Amino acid sequence: MPQITPGDQPGEGQASAASPSLQFLAKREIEVAWVHAGKLSHDEGIELGRVCHKWQTQFSAQGSRKGLGLRPILDEVGIPPSTAYFWIGRYKDATKDIKPPSEKEMREVPLEEALDKFVIKQALAPHGQAAAKFAKYPQQHTAELELLELVKMDIYRQIGEICKTKS
Q1: Which has the closest alpha carbon to 123: 150, 148, 159, 153?
Q2: What is the largest CA-CA distance in the chain?
Q3: What is the pLDDT of residues 35-49, one digit of tens each?
Q4: Nearest CA among 21, 40, 28, 44 for reference residue 76
Q5: Tell me, what's the pLDDT at 66?
Q6: What percentage of the chain exceeds 90 in pLDDT?
Q7: Would you put residue 37 in left (φ > 0), alpha (ψ -120 to 50) or beta?
Q8: 45 with 77: CB under 8 angstroms?
Q9: CA dihedral 12, 17, 20, 25 (to 10 degrees)
Q10: How much is the pTM?
């Protein structure tokens, strides 16, 4: 059986079945991380997340139904599962690759379009969630839509005045 050291990454030539010695090693490593995480600092919490994620990945084939997953070890050590999964999530967030923006996200928005969206958002803001009904049911909200057009024109006028003072 291959030797596993605490620095190994999951899936690097490790045994597929969870042997008692592997369970013991996982328990010891999680216990050490839990003791250090007791300081409640962010770095120690991230380390607990790393260790738990490592063993979660290692034991994912067995799952908790057979009593060989991460959950029984957490229960043995006395770590609330919600705490472990919280720090696993934080660890994943801290180590995930930053993806470049998609082509759609990189699209350059014309100034006029951006200004229209801003003005519409400002005009609809006082109406809150009810504003969604204006576009969906225009025949029922003719007065509100007319008022919105007046508000939009006023916002454009104010923007124009600001631009005149700036130039």
Answers
A1: 148
A2: 78
A3: 877 766 777 788 888
A4: 28
A5: 63
A6: 1
A7: alpha
A8: no
A9: 20
A10: 0.46
59 burial (CB, 10 Å; 0-12 / 13-18 / 19+) is buried
The residue assigned the tokens 């190994």 is 8
Q: Are 150 and 143 in contact (CB under 8 A)?
A: no
Residue 101, token pair as written in the block: 């923006």
**Distance (Å, whole) CA 138 – CA 140:** 5
Q: Are 71 and 64 in contact (CB under 8 A)?
A: yes
Distance (Å) of CA 154 to CA 12, 32, 123: 64, 64, 10
Distances from the Cα of 89 to the Cα of 34, 45, 63, 82, angstroms: 16, 11, 19, 10
Total number of residues shown for the chain:
167
Residue 73 is which amino acid?
I
Which of 37, 29, 50 minimizes the C-alpha distance to 93? 50
